[in-house]
Amino acid sequence: MKPSDIECVVFDVETTGLFPKDGDRIIEIAAVKVKRGEIVDEFESFINPEREIPIEASRVNNITDDMVADAPTAEDVLPKMIDFVGGASLVGHNVKFDLEFLCFQLSQCGRKLRSVTPAIDTLKLSRGLIPQLNRHRLENVAQYFGVQIGDTHRALADVKLTVAVLNRLFDLADQQGFQTADKIFKHFGVEKPNYKIQDVSQGSLF
């Protein structure tokens, strides 16, 4: 299996802050399923964090309290992400950040990602395959490849930009000798956080 043959779910979250264990929460999640470089399905939702969005976060992602007031909660949205992923690999740029939030809040819903679900970081791919770049932010990598950059810091826009970058990184990985899925997972994969599943029947959702 070549890198480009890996079925991927590229995803991104927008949040109220940086630290889920300190009370920050997901306010938007977006994901696309990619097969052989083509987007074949999409998943997107606002999430009501059941707390106020700090003004600093709104300045980054342009999401306000009014926008999520009538949105479903994480308990309603995030378990659907498990079904959407299915047997695919999760992918994101600096994916550890997104996985921290997803796995933490899934645990609060009494759920977790499948243990066999691998995760690939396009940030690690970029640093390993394009060491000459001074900065490896998603926009920098996209610019390196000549990928057109539209709106950013909203989940679906960032996801689609990541897909375009991922396709080029997979091609580059193949050229540089990382020609199997096993090599991609070994060199550019990340471990998923392993949060203890909470018993939501005991009132431990938040």
Which consecutive residue ranges, at least 5 long each, have pLDDT under 50?
Answer: 202-206
CATH architecture: 2-Layer Sandwich
CATH fourth-tier homologous superfamily: Ribonuclease H-like superfamily/Ribonuclease H
Number of strands: 6
Secondary-structure element pattern, one letter each: EEEHHHEHEHHHHE
In helices, the fraction of residues equals 25-40%
**Briefly, what CATH class?**
Alpha Beta
Query: How large a portion of the residues is in β-strands, by DSSP E?
Result: 15-25%
The general outline is globular
Can you count the helices? 8
Structural class: alpha/beta
What name is given to the CATH topology? Answer: Nucleotidyltransferase, domain 5
Termini separation comes to 42 Å
Q: How many strands, which pairing sense, and closed or not: the largest β-sheet?
A: 6 strands, mixed
In total, the number of domains comes to: 1
Radius of gyration equals 17 Å
For this entry, give a set of tags.
six-stranded mixed β-sheet; globular; 6 strands; Nucleotidyltransferase, domain 5; single chain; disordered C terminus; 8 helices; alpha/beta; 206 residues
Structure, described:
The protein has 206 residues and is of the alpha/beta class. It has a single domain (3-191), classed as 2-Layer Sandwich (Nucleotidyltransferase, domain 5). 40% of the residues lie in helices and 17% in strands. The chain is built from eight helices and six strands; from the N terminus they run βββαααβαβααααβ. The chain has helices at residues 55-61, 65-68, 74-85, 95-108, 122-129, 138-145, 155-175, 181-188; strands at residues 8-15, 26-35, 38-46, 89-92, 119-121, 189-190. It has a six-stranded mixed beta sheet with strand order 3-2-1-4-5-6, sandwiched between helices. Helix 3 (74-85) crosses helix 4 (95-108) and helix 6 (138-145) crosses helix 7. The radius of gyration is 17 Å and the shape is globular. The model is unreliable at 202-206 (pLDDT under 50).
